[in-house]
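Hi R.,

Here's the chain you asked about this morning:
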Amino acid sequence: MFTKSTQQTTLFLIAAAAAYAQNRPITIRAGMVLDGKGGVQRNATLTVVGSKLEKSDSQTKTVTYDLRNFTVLPGMIDTHVHIAWHFGPDGRYQPRDDSQATALGYALENAWVTLMGGFTTVQSVGNPIDADARAAINRGVIPGPRLLTSLRAISNPAMTPDQIREAVRKMKADGSDLIKMFASKSFRDGGGATLSKEQIEAACGEAKAQGLRTIVHVYGPETITQVADAGCNAVEHGTLITPEVLKHLAAKGTYFDPNIGLVAQNYLEHRANYLNIGNYTEEGMAAMSRSIPVSLQVFKQALATPGLKIIFGTDAVAGAHGHNVEELIYRVQKGGQNPLAAITSVTSLSAESLNMGDQIGTLAPGMQADLIAVDGDPLKDITALRRVVFVMKGGKVFKAR
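And the predicted structure, written out as tokens:
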């Protein structure tokens, strides 16, 4: 019969054994490692202790995961998704759910397929249900990518600068990781400016004062210039930008996230799922179709702009979740981006834009153990990124072959 003291000792030993098992080093042998900052190493072994990368050592003999036939790289990062957007039971886009439980269920489904697609961090902009999805993922009870969210967006052109500042403070108090702002109409509605210079300055200035980043949905060159001058962090879309304003973004250090290879194509592919809901009209669909070659030309101009920081975002909506990497493939195959530069954009550069460059996006000692393996060499064939065979986030394996 166990005494109370014996029981306590037994429980302590069980807990200690569990803690040891959790912190036992994991070794990963890789045929090729892309470190996220342009470095390439062959026949390397990565060591993970707890949630962190510890070292890279080609001499290690004990291997937990043998990925010698695959390419290992940092978990990919998507800086612009809408994780809650989904099609309802009837297959139609469902912008509002009667049940919050249903809304959360769809968001978590989208989070799962996104993680399985090799994306270990996403920035969702934004829906209040994102907070519940973020909490469930952070508790470790539901698998999903690391989730940052704006919860909602600043978009009302009738708001005064003081009202905008108050809205930013409220978003911070409610747990927003960043501020999302609409300074232009949807491209389906022409993409014209909706906010004044003073309103933009109020939002970005207050966000900075609150320690938050601001990303801005914007299309026209004049408004984009105002966004950069106001110290906002990132320009989203920018379809009507000019080469001169691209140079201005580079000079200001503003990140550029063009979203050219997935979102419009997804809307057109799923036309029947969206048509006649809100501004998803025949005219709106035609506008998105026209935007595709324009956006591609803008991307090529962006690549030719010295010093411009082009990050990776997809604007993934209903129908696109889990297919995020198609944006990167499009940028390489159609846009002419160098594959190594493209991989840097979806890893370390995007991490930097999230103010997380010291935590994720690079395979180096002390960084979070967010890494994936793909079947093939993405430097020779970028479509290898579709073939994700291994996913680790924070030292925990979610997919292994």
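Confidence is low (pLDDT under 50) at residues 4-21.

Let me know if you need anything else.
M.
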